[in-house]
Specification:
With 271 residues, the protein is an alpha+beta fold. The chain has a 5-stranded antiparallel beta sheet with strand order 11-10-9-12-13. The two termini are 29 Å apart.
């Protein structure tokens, strides 16, 4: 980028490896980078682009004010907020024809009377430290209700798979991947494995890109299970914590400068 850009990181953790490396690259290229904590008073000045690596109401409100001033926010506020509601997420994905896990909202207190097979129970609202666990029978459901009283939840069938979550990430047009042992599976000697994008099954890269288009995201993660019936999406995350992926900071720096120049493709469908 020829002109000097002002990039703002909206985050409680500017030292996150992805953000810190991206900021270093931008500064080395002559751009200005500052950080805004979601709980701190708003910084003066209007940046050319904002990287929204936070999902609290305070963070979304700050980012919305920047959008009102014409600042491009990555990811857009509406798309970021949309991905926090797992029922709306599933409804949109399924309506768009994506292979997303069937998802229904449930009353955790009454789940013991509705379990008719192994299911996955998740907090309705995606957040740090939220509920994600398997429930196999009524006794499991009663224990969970006692541990999480009043928690709004969604329920998904426990799909047959190899016990690994495929973590697929997109930063602009660049894709990254790894395999992590599912927290719902038995422990394994190796908790995570490298997964070259070139080794992904046919159609998976296109599935990730289509998911981003459907949700209006530019920096996002897609959690996929490899099932006997094909890939099954179980979650979509706005601006996930991508670690240890060569090229990810470079991709994010390029995306930030493209946004500052107004060169992003149009279109948050989820908004």
């Amino acid at each position: 980028m020829s002109a000097r850009a002002h990039v703002r990181l909206l985050t409680a953790d500017p030292d996150h490896p992805l953000l810190a490396a991206t900021a270093a690259l931008l500064r080395a290229g002559g751009h200005a980078v500052d950080s805004q904590h979601p709980d701190a008073p708003e910084r003066p000045g209007v940046p050319d682009v904002c990287l929204l690596k936070a999902r609290t109401p305070q963070a979304l409100a700050l980012a919305a004010r920047l959008e009102e001033r014409g600042v491009p926010v990555l990811n857009p506020v509406a798309a970021t907020a949309f991905c926090q509601d797992r029922q709306r997420m599933a409804d949109l994905a399924l309506a768009a024809g994506l292979p997303f896990a069937p998802t229904r909202t449930a009353d955790l207190a009454a789940l013991d009377r509705a379990v008719d097979g192994p299911v996955v129970v998740k907090s309705l609202h995606s957040r740090r430290g939220d509920l994600v666990t398997a429930v196999h029978d009524a006794a499991d459901a009663r224990r969970l209700a006692a541990q999480w009283p009043g928690e709004p939840v969604v329920v998904q069938p426990l799909a047959r798979n190899d016990g690994w979550d495929h973590k697929l990430w997109a930063v602009g047009g660049a894709l990254f991947a790894e395999r992590r042992r599912s927290e719902l599976a038995a422990p394994a000697a190796v908790a995570r494995e490298e997964l070259p994008v070139a080794a992904l099954p046919d159609g998976w890269p296109e599935l990730v890109r289509t998911t981003g288009e459907v949700f209006g995201l530019q920096v996002y993660g897609v959690d996929v299970l490899d099932t006997p019936d094909g890939p099954l999406i179980v979650d979509v995350n706005a601006f996930p914590g991508i670690r240890g992926q060569a090229g990810a900071p470079e991709a994010l720096a390029a995306l930030a400068t493209a946004a500052a120049e107004g060169r992003l493709p149009a279109g948050a469908r989820a908004a």
